[in-house]
Amino acid sequence: MKPELRSGLRSKLRAENLSVRYDADNEGCALRGVTFSIRDGERAALLGANGAGKSTLLMTLVGVLHPESGEVILDDAATTKETLRYLRSKVGVAFQNPDDQLFMPSLYEDIAFGPRNYGLPEPEVESRVSAALSRLGISHLRERMTHRLSGGEKRLAALAGILVMEPSVLLMDEPTSFLDGRSRRRLIEILSGLPQAMIIATHDIDLASKLCERVILLQNGQIRADGDAETILSDAAMLDACGL
Ligand SMILES: Nc1ncnc2c1ncn2[C@@H]1O[C@H](COP(=O)(O)OP(=O)(O)OP(=O)(O)O)[C@@H](O)[C@H]1O
Ligand SMILES: [Mg+2]
Description:
By secondary structure, the chain is an alpha/beta fold.
């Protein structure tokens, strides 16, 4: 993509010492002191065993969960209640369960919801929705009822609902779950052609190595390793210690 087209998609997202606890009575923290930044256009795989805190981290980065301490910093400004709307316009998230994301009756209505909510004129909405559907290869599903789509179709629909907003950072939670081989390969191809920075929580090590230059490895709510994907993914002892 041309640099001038990429420039509108620039954002720096930073987690500063994030700690998250679901339940005040609970001793354990789901996240403890998590700090990292994601650079312009960088793609990071977020790895860790079940319960390591991957989904918690993504939901905290987009302001769905509130940290007990620490901050989410976007473009050098700490996120507050007042700036949450701005954060959500810049940072798109695909939840682990696509059913949590799709709520309008038809697929078209669902994907059009975000751009309409931001007050875009209807012809712009229409062209953005068509482009997002086509990009994900699901144009034929546009009039379908969302609750009657298959798991994989819902996954692609949820991703279309994010891309349509043209965010500068994409957060994805298990984007390849429910996908068949062909849809999975297609998704990896699509993501590798996108200019946005991405954080991808996944158990799909093959996707991580194909798509991401960086790996952030979580263990019990803390960052165990953060760095070059090739180095971390070839460290069998560490992956094993983290339950992967
Ligand atoms: N709604 C909740 N209420 C209480 N505890 C929760 C809740 N959601 C998650 N947890 C706990 O927080 C910790 C982190 O969970 P999280 O869902 O972030 O893990 P994960 O790395 O995404 O796991 P998975 O690979 O299974 O998706 C776990 O111990 C989990 O049991
Ligand atoms: Mg999860």
